Structure formats: C-alpha cells, structure tokens
C-alpha cells in the first residue's frame, strides 16, 4: 500500500504502461517497425536478427590475399530437392551473394540485387563494384525500418567479389538494420559469435592468406563450431579469385582427412 491507502500499480511487461489495460496487450512498438521502445530499440529489427539465427544455418566468409571464400551448410531434408533452394547467388560474373537467414527473403533480395547491378552497368558502362552493391543493399534495408507496412529482411547478406578498378578481392556484410561492413573474415547465422571469436584468434597476426590457406581457414572455423556434425553436412561454397575473376558456386561434403 502506498501512502493514503492507494494501491501501487505495477508496470506491465509488454509495453511498460502504467494504465489499467491488460498486461497481455502488446505495445505498439512491439508490432510497428517505425516506433522506438523505451530502451531506444526497434523491436522488429531485433526480431529480424533473431529470424536470421532461427533458420539454423551458420555461414563463414574469409578474404585472402587474392581470393574470397564463403561457405554455409544446408539444412538436412531427405525429401527436398536440393537444387530447389540455395543460399548462394551469382549477382554478376564478378560478384556473388550469400544470404544467411530466411531463404525466401534471400532469394528476393538477390533478385533485386541483380536488377540493381544490371541497371548500374547499363547506366555507367562498367560492372558494379562489391562496395557499391553492399551500400545499395544496406540503403534498401534501412528504408525498411522507416515504413510501417513493410518489415525488415530476415537475412544477413555477404557480398563477395573482385573490384574491377582496384583488382582486389572484397568481402562485405549487410544486416537487417541497414549497416554494412567490410571484412577480412566474418561469420553469420546461428553460431555467429563462436565463428567470429575463432576467426579473430586466427587473424590476429594479420596473415596474408593464399587461396589454399583461405579455404582451410573457412573449413576450420565451421568444424570448430559444428563439432561432430561437421562431416555429416552438405555445404554450399562460393569462391572468386584474381586469377579467375568469375564467381564459382558449388556444393560438396567434406571428408575426414581431406585437404
């Protein structure tokens, strides 16, 4: 009891409201992407990031001295045609995209990215650089945080390719909030933190990785976080190098003792 015999009203967990409404009613900021919560967060973005992990896959990308490798594992489904669903997409001949998270969102985003890259080439006469595509995807994702009738993409995009002007391999990530970053190595998905911690230790000395060493580091990072499941999974692999600046996408299973 408060002074004067009034009953103290508790703050509801859903919306932080002290009104007499039921605590089961969700606050508007829980449902609408344009509203900040009292903590200054956009809850729908938090939910989008959770959706990336809910897909159950983990991805790794590493940029070597003259190449980039990205790898993700497929979810096991014996009744599914494995060619029907992919997380890896060739955007142009010199640039690819790995979408970690909701497969449908990844496919739609890759389709839009292809259109953007084609329009860029038509307008300017040369291939869209990976940095420009990463910025375009990030700008589009950020716009999805400003409109109440659309939701953020439930994917983290890894853009990898060879910059035509600089002739260097590049690796970028874009998240549902519209942030994009360049990386030497990175991870995304269910075990993102474990992958990043492993890569930080291995990249601490800033090594200049050959193509073989780059691929080996990607494998070691996934083996570190997947443990006993590593050799039972099928993997989607994307690679591009300065020697062969064409995106190559393929699937394979790793065999124990395979180099």
Automatic annotation (TrEMBL):
Record InterPro entries: Ntn_hydrolases_N (IPR029055), Proteasome_alpha (IPR050115), Proteasome_alpha-type (IPR023332), Proteasome_asu_N (IPR000426), Proteasome_sua/b (IPR001353)
Record's keyword annotation contains Cytoplasm: yes
Gene3D superfamilies in the record: Glutamine Phosphoribosylpyrophosphate, subunit 1, domain 1
Keywords per UniProt: Cytoplasm, Nucleus, Proteasome
Any single biological process term in GO: ubiquitin-dependent protein catabolic process
Domain of life: Eukaryota
Pfam families: Proteasome, Proteasome_A_N
Membrane-spanning segments: none
Chief location category: cytoplasm
Domain Proteasome alpha-type subunits residue range list: 29-51
Cellular localization per UniProt: Cytoplasm; Nucleus
Subunit structure comment from the entry: The 20S proteasome core is composed of 28 subunits that are arranged in four stacked rings, resulting in a barrel-shaped structure. The two end rings are each formed by seven alpha subunits, and the two central rings are each formed by seven beta subunits. The 26S proteasome consists of a 20S proteasome core and two 19S regulatory subunits. The 20S proteasome core is composed of 28 subunits that are arranged in four stacked rings, resulting in a barrel-shaped structure. The two end rings are each formed by seven alpha subunits, and the two central rings are each formed by seven beta subunits. The catalytic chamber with the active sites is on the inside of the barrel.
Family of this protein: Belongs to the peptidase T1A family.
Function recorded in the entry: The proteasome is a multicatalytic proteinase complex which is characterized by its ability to cleave peptides with Arg, Phe, Tyr, Leu, and Glu adjacent to the leaving group at neutral or slightly basic pH. The proteasome has an ATP-dependent proteolytic activity.
Descriptive protein name: Proteasome subunit alpha type
Record organism: Oryza brachyantha (malo sina)
